[in-house]
Each structure stands twice: as C-alpha cells, then as structure tokens.
Amino acid sequence: MVHIDRSSPWNRVDFSAAGMVAPGADDDEHTQCHDWLLYAASAHRGQAYLYWAQLHAIGEFIDIALVKLDDAVCAGGEQKDLFDPYTVAVGEVGILFAVAPPAARALVAQAVAASERLPKTADLLREGTISQPMFVTAVARTDIVDEPELVTAVDTDLAEALAGAGHISEKKAEKIADRVVTRHDRDAIRRRREKARKRKNVTNRDYSDGLGGVNVTADAEEARLALAAVNALAEGVCPNDPRTLGQRRSAAAIARLRGLPFTCACPDSSTCTATLGDQEISDRQARIIVHAVCQKSTLDGEDDEPGFLDGYGPISAEHARDLAQRPDATVRNLDLDDLTEHTPPIERPALIVHTSQPADPYRPNATLDALVRGLFATCTVAGCERPAWNCELDHVDEFDQICPDSGGPTCLCNIAPKCKAHHLWKTHLGADRPEKGWVDDLWIEDDGSVWSSVTLPYGITVEMAATNQWLFPQLAELRCLHQAQAPPEPPTPSGPTTGTGNCPTGGGLRAATAYKHAWRRAERARLRNERRRAAEAGDPPPF
Ligand SMILES: [Zn+2]
Ligand SMILES: [Zn+2]
Ligand SMILES: [Zn+2]
Known about the structure:
GO terms for molecular function: endonuclease activity. This is HNH endonuclease signature motif containing protein. The chain is mostly helical. It has helices spanning 29-72, 85-97, 101-117, 119-126, 132-142, 148-163, 170-184, 186-197, 220-234, 245-258, 278-286, 296-299, 317-324, 366-376, 420-428, 481-484, 508-537; strands at 201-206, 212-217, 292-293, 307-309, 313-315, 350-352, 356-357, 360-364, 392-395, 415-418, 439-444, 450-455, 461-465, 478-480. A three-stranded antiparallel beta sheet has the order 3-4-5. It has a three-stranded antiparallel beta sheet with strand order 11-12-13. A two-stranded antiparallel ribbon has the order 1-2. One zinc ion (ZN) binds at residues 237-238, 240-241, 264, 266, 272, 274.
C-alpha cells in the first residue's frame, strides 16, 4: 500500500544540477544577489518541468485506465453517464489531487492537450521555456480549433512563436496564442467574436465593506474609449481636490451613468481652477484616441491577416475593417518606405535613413513613431504591459542634445517605448555609480527581427523579441544605417571626466551624465559581444 504522503522527500533532493545553487555565506552582496536570483529563476523553470511531468503521467494513466475501466464499469447498468470510463478516470484524478470535478476535468484536459493536441508546445513546458500558466492559457485559447490538421498547424506555429519570443509575460504568451489561432482558423475567430458579442452586458456586483461594482462588457475599443473618457472627466478637477485618482474616476463614471454633474471636491470654491465646463470636457475627450495597426491589404479586403489594437492585442481582420469604417476613425497610411531613400528604384534590402523630424534630430518622425509603438506593442521592459501609445519613446543609447553625432541615433535600432516609471528607472538608477543601474539594449537581427534587453546590476540579462514582429513582415527588407557598422568594443571609460568626441563635457552634472552614458555604451558593447560569442558557440542565452 502506498499512501500519498503530504510530507514529501522534495526538500532533501539536490537540485544544484538544475542551477539551484545557493551562494556561499562569505560571498559579497553582489554575488549573493546574483546567485539568489538565478536560483529563483531555476526553481521557476523547474516548476514548469514538474507540471509537464504531472500532465505526462496523468495522460499515460488515462490512456491505460480507459481500456481497463471499460471492463470494470459494465456493471453500472442504466447509469451510463456516471459509469462512463472517462468519467470514472477523471473522478480518480480528482481524488488523487483532492479537487472538485471541474478542476479534475480541466487537469485531464491539460494532460490530453499535452500529449495529443499541443505536443510541441508541451515540449516547451518540459524544457522550462514556457511557464505552467502559459501552457494552461495556450490550451484554453486554442481549444476553439477543431480540425485535426489545423490543430497541428496551430501547435507548430505556437511552439515556434513562443520559443522565439524571448523572456515574455503570460499576457504576451496569451496574445501570441490568439494571433496564431486568428491566422489559422479565421472562421473560428468569427464564430467566437459573434458569440462573445452576445455576452455584452452591464452587470452589478457586491463587494465587501459596503462597496459594489458596475461592469460594462463592450467591444474592446469601446471599453478603452469609455475608460479614457472617464479619465478625461476625472482629470478636470483642481489640484486641491482631496480625492485619489481612483476615487475621482469612480465619481466621474457614476456621474456620467446617472446623468448627474461631476464637480470638483476642493474645500474652497473661490480658488477652484477646475476645468469641468462642457467645452473643456469635450476638448479633452476629442483628444482620446484608440490606435490600431493592420496591413493595408487587410483593410482593402484582399486578405484576412490579423490586425492589432493598442492596449488589447491581435484582432481579427474583420474587426480591423470594422474599426476603419467607424465614422470617427481616421485611417493613416504607414508606409515603411517613407523611412528609406526615396530615389527609385529602391533596392532591397533598403536602407533606413529618414527617421527623425527634419528640424529636430531628437524627435522620431511620424512613421518611425508609429512603427516603433506598433512593433513593440507595450513598454519594452519584460513583464510590463503598459500600452505602447501610453509610453514615452526612449533613446536606448542616450541621445546627446549638445552633440547629436556623439550620442545614440534617433533610429529604429535605438528607439523603444518605455512607460514613465521604467523610463525614469532606466534614466536615474545608477546616477552616481552607473554599475548600480540598469543597462538596456536594442538591436536588429539579420532577419529584421528587433530585440530589446535589460541587464540588472547583478549581471543578469533578460531579452525579448518585439511583440508584433509578425505585423511588419516588411522589416525583413530594411536595414538601418547603424546595423552595417557595428561599433567595436570601446574601452571602459575611466572616470566622470571623460568627454565624447569633440564635444565639450562641461563640469559637474553634465560630466557625470556623460560618464554614465559612456559607461553604459561600453557595457552594451561588451554584452553584445558576449551575446554574439554565445550565439556562435551555440550556447543558450545567459538567462
Ligand atoms: Zn477645485
Ligand atoms: Zn539605426
Ligand atoms: Zn514599463
């Protein structure tokens, strides 16, 4: 007899071979931070492997049990449903993991998906490339596909896309699954969207402590517009309004829904500078924009490639066309050839040369601005889902306002969306000692794919492919000016007095900043060379 013992031998197993190595007590703090972070990351990957092992074992059990149970349950007589072999096997899984029937069915469905529907995606789970929640999401988002050939194609593409995405969040993995399904089974997406639209509703829910909620389910773009409109209203109060932004949003939304005025709550109306007049509110509302990107051929109805809605993710071709046909929509042509030399014939690969505004080399031109936001979809710091059109555009290698030629270029290879918080962190962490800050990077591979990375001060780097590379196949045909001339590894600057090029450094803060930028530039070059050497040697990425 084997008891499922709740005290397990796991805590006595040596996992050092899997990278779970605790630092020595005598190691310096830097090394301890580095080692503990790697330890945590290895444990995280181990969870993925163990989840795969759990599903694999359940799948094997189900296969064998179904045959065995076929004989055992004949006696069940009339109650066929209850004594169906599958139901009994799922019931036994439920007992083993002490979960209710829906959870047991979900677990068995995951196991069946791992062995039959999505074996290639399941391989990524086994390797720890994707996490348990990512696999669960992939199974859920692809279950709408029925045709066996389509299921196989979806699995192949999904596994390839997830494997090539770099260090992505669960949310990004979910969007990848949606996009792959959208591409392979357009009918399924149409059906799903029609079905989903029937779920549109307004519902009410009670929370604890005397609160309640109103939930409005609508088309994704309408929901975004509605939230932005609430924000526009909530922003109109004067600085003396004592409420938090959340409280103001709540009051503004309720006022709108109930047809009541929304007013500033400052204590002294004689000094109130609120801008809540009809005209002021409607001026702010007029600036509310929802951005979507798709291929022109999709808009023209020539193909059904998916599109992309900022802050949401991939949308069906039909949805993209619906958006373009709204009376309040403005359709702008994003022609990537605007970035290249105009004299025809344009050779391929074409060189990117027009990237900044003619009068201001610091500012990206409209084409680069839209391309970079559409391409990255979100803030480029791993795990951050702040929509790209709500982000600031950061020069990864810092722009030099005094001497533009010495700093990072305003170019596809150097401009990345960052949310305000991440932009501030990148800029100001390590102000006195750059090695205590983050080093971010951006580069374009030979196939045109654009990657970004962040290196933490403990020497741990995470890399991520641009989320919407699939949306811009034309990028494979473009090369930027700086790609061709990869700079050699510059020497590490020796101290805050180092100037760059022929530009004067000035004193104090300016010198410290110049030193920080030069240090980061050297560090980026060093990391790039390390990455290149690792790629040539066929080593896995450092993290
Ligand atoms: Zn006021
Ligand atoms: Zn460039
Ligand atoms: Zn961010």
